[in-house]
Amino acid sequence: MTAAFRYDVHLPGGLEEGKRYPVIFTLHGKGSNERNMFGLVSPLAKDFIIIGIRGSRILGSGYQYYDLKSLGNPIREQFDQAMRELTEFIAYATAKYPLDPQRRYLLGFSQGAILAMSLAMTMGDRLKGIVALNGYVPAFVKTEYPLRSVAQTSIFISHGEFDSIFPIGTGRENAAYFRTLTPNMTFNIYPTGHGVSPENQQDYAAWLLEDAGLTTDEQEQGVITL
Predict the structure, then answer these.
(1) Domain containing 159 — which CATH number?
(2) Where is the secretion signal located (predicted)?
(3) What percent of the chain is modeled with pLDDT above 70?
(4) Is residue 226 part of a domain?
């Protein structure tokens, strides 16, 4: 099996042979890249394997996973392809690296958040949880995709109160939708625009550590970058 995406891997230091580690797959926003996302999760790199996935489509000096017909209206064929290839990539990485398949997380911003929420709905309990920062769920995902239960999936959604790209009402709609699907849903609003505040980072980092069941005995020192 080969990878459909370019990616960066950050491994905790002092890996123990035979041990499986929780993993965070990061998904960047439109026009960004996988390395820009690492700053959002770097404090967790001693506890999690971090895999940053680069979108396969060039956009200016950055990348995207799919293009748009208009704001909020993905090109369906490209979106479908990204969803399929990301699902396959998660399986690829699970086979290649010492990942714990019971503790696989996605963390996405903007376009990455859109994909993270959509993948949660199609992968169900094959993901332990997601962090979705300033995104939305396309209507066709809700009505046309084959969906799996997320009742056992942990969901952390946050949104900027002053987001000019996806208004705060979009975040509230996300929260209301996922509350009907899982009891394991956290929704926070932060006084920011289309971005991620330090408080937001602190909150989802603490949430990820708790949800993954990490203890001080499990935590490793240092990080190896591939």
Answers:
(1) 3.40.50.1820
(2) none
(3) 94
(4) no
For the chain, the domain total comes to 1
Residue 10 lies in a domain: no
pLDDT of residue 71: 83
- Give the Cα separation of 221 and 47 in Å (integer): 8
Cβ within 8 Å of residue 58, ≥6 positions away: none
Q: Which residue has the tokens 């920011």?
A: 192
Centroid of chain to Cα 64: 14
Q: Are 148 and 125 in contact (CB under 8 A)?
A: yes
Residues in a beta bridge with 131: 107, 156
Q: What is the extent of the structural domain holding 189?
A: 20-212
pLDDT score at 2: 81
pTM: 0.94
Mean pLDDT of the region 82-110: 98
What is the DSSP secondary structure assignment for residue 54, as one 8-state letter? P
* pLDDT digit string, tens, across residues 76-87: 999 999 999 999
What is the per-residue pLDDT across 160-172, written as a single tens digit (0 to 9) for each? 999 999 999 999 9
Q: Tell me if 100 is assigned to some domain.
A: yes
From the list 74, 68, 72, 36, the residue with the least C-alpha distance to 52 is 36
Q: What is the identity of the amino acid at 220?
A: E
Residue partners of 98: CB distance under 8 A and separation at least 6: 15, 19, 20, 21, 49
